[in-house]
Design a protein that fits this description.
This protein has 87 residues and is mainly alpha-helical. It contains three helices and no strands.
Length: 87
């Protein structure tokens, strides 16, 4: 009985540390709209069609960058599974 409680306590203490490994390196709730607003407002009037297009382009660029990072991570995982003896 005591052994099971020690294991459970160890698991409860270790779980938050392992949960940090699940992050990809970026906060999931990061709000970058302020930065995008400032970037687009430098060259376009706020609320104009060019400003809206600039914001959309920034969103597309961010989505493409995230998909590239995800693809690289997936490829690394596949490489590690297919080549277990190579460093």
């Amino acid at each position: 009985m005591r052994r099971n409680s020690v294991r459970l306590l160890g698991l409860l203490l270790l779980a938050p540390l392992l949960a940090g490994c699940l992050e990809r390196g970026q906060p999931t709730m990061a709000d970058t709209s302020g930065d995008d607003d400032a970037f687009c407002a430098r060259s376009h009037a706020v609320g104009s069609t060019d400003f809206v297009n600039c914001r959309k382009d920034r969103d597309v660029q961010r989505a493409n960058a995230n998909s590239r990072v995800d693809k690289r991570q997936r490829n690394l995982g596949e490489y590690m599974l297919n080549n277990p003896t190579r460093p």
